[in-house]
Amino acid sequence: MTQISIRINGESIKVSAQSSLSQALILSPAVGDEKNFVIALNQNFIARSQYDSTLLKAGDDIELLSPMAGG
Amino acid sequence: MHNINNNNDVINKGIKEGLTLYDQTFSSRLLVGTALYQSPDIMAQAIAASGSEMITLSLRRQDPSNNQGQTIWQHIQQSGCALLPNTAGCHSAQEAITLAQMSREMFATDFIKLEVIGDDYNLQPDPFETVKAAEILIKKGFKVLPYCTDDLVLCQRLLEAGCQVLMPWGSPIGTGKGLMNPYNLQAIRERFPTTSLIIDAGIGKPSQAMAAMEMGFDGILLNTAIAKAHNPIHMAQAFAQAVNGGRQAYLAGLMESRQTASPSTPTLGTPFWQQK
Questions:
Q1: DSSP class per residue in B176-243
Q2: How far away is chain A from the Cα of B259, in angstroms, using its nearest Cα?
Q3: Considering only CB atoms, which residues of chain B are within 8 Å of chain A?
Q4: By the CB < 8 Å criterion, does A1 face chain B?
Q5: What is the ipTM, given to two decimal places?
């Protein structure tokens, strides 16, 4: 199956073409044990309810963020 | 005497009124940040000591090998405080809007501390991008608390965009320089008498927070001054007292300053005085 390259938090990973966002997250070391995260794809917010239906394409840039202290 | 009693009632009512942020009211007028503490435990104790009911936090990339973020998040949840996520680090309206949407899903709140930085040297907010982001976020149902400079016209534009709260800086973030431009801040207070105004950033000492409250500001948001104190817990208490004291002083009505000295002790019956 064709592989495409995407980035999650700046790190490149290979996923199968036509992978969904949910499928890519399983492969990402950035997720780890973290359950509390939210996502932007190419700087656009993606609601959790859309992770399964969002299909990825080569070069996609995923930002995966979690709660942190802030001022 | 009768008038003083009436005035007492007004002041006591004013003290109890609390801070209104959109449709919610908070009895504490001090909002605190959660960053820069030595440990999550000290952070939690300082938040409790401050009496704050709303705390700021952020979203960041997580290092899977370090669970510090999770620990902080657990302490924040246990604090029971309302959450005010920020858009710190954003340099454009688009970045801030995306981060605000992510924050709303993560923290289940419409409140957002809108922060769009225009200059990395002094972390001065970008007025143009801040207004642009505020307009869009308000339309998307956010309760926007914009971090802005002390520019009167910028404040006017943010109100026109639909913001019900403004957060002008005292001075640049983390400097502790206090109220850099009291004249500008006073003008904003006088020009927008019914808007909730919070001084955000630059407050380094309780006396500076008190000065802002004496001017009639509705609240104070700070982080570094507590987190970087030698004893953050006691400093949090000091800030809570300063904010309350400043509020009470504002409601009580400050005397007008005078150019020349005027004796406070009665001159009538002054001892050792002889008519020459």
A1: ----S-HHHHHHHHHHSTTSEEEEES---SHHHHHHHHHTT--EEEESHHHHTSSSHHHHHHHHHHHH
A2: 40
A3: 33-37, 43, 56-62, 64-65, 67, 69-70, 72-73, 76, 85-86, 88, 94-95, 98-99, 101-103, 105-107, 173, 223-224
A4: no
A5: 0.94
Q: B102 vs A45: CB contact, 8 Å cut-off?
A: yes
**Chain B contact set for A37 (CB, 8 A):** 62, 106
pLDDT band per the 50, 70, 90 thresholds, residue B1 = very low
Rounded to whole angstroms, the Cα distance separating B164 from B148 reads: 14
Compute the residue count for chain B: 276
Burial class (CB in 10 A: 0-12, 13-18, 19+), B103: buried
Answer whether A34 touches B (CB < 8 Å).
yes
Is A60 part of the contact surface with chain B (CB cutoff 8 Å)? no
- For the record, the structure tokens of B177 come out as 């320089």
pLDDT bucket at B251, cuts 50 / 70 / 90: very high
Exposure string for B59-87, b = 16+ CB within 10 A, e = fewer: bbbbeeeeeebbebbebbeebebbbbbbb
Question: At B275, is the pLDDT very low, low, confident or very high (cuts 50, 70, 90)?
Answer: confident
Would you list the DSSP string of B255-273?
PPP-SS---SS--TT-TT-
Both tokens of A9, joined, read 């938090």
Beta bridge partner(s), residue B251? none
Task: Give residue-wise pLDDT tens across range B215-237.
Answer: 999 999 999 999 999 999 999 99
Q: Which residues of B touch A45 (CB under 8 A)?
A: 98, 101-102, 105
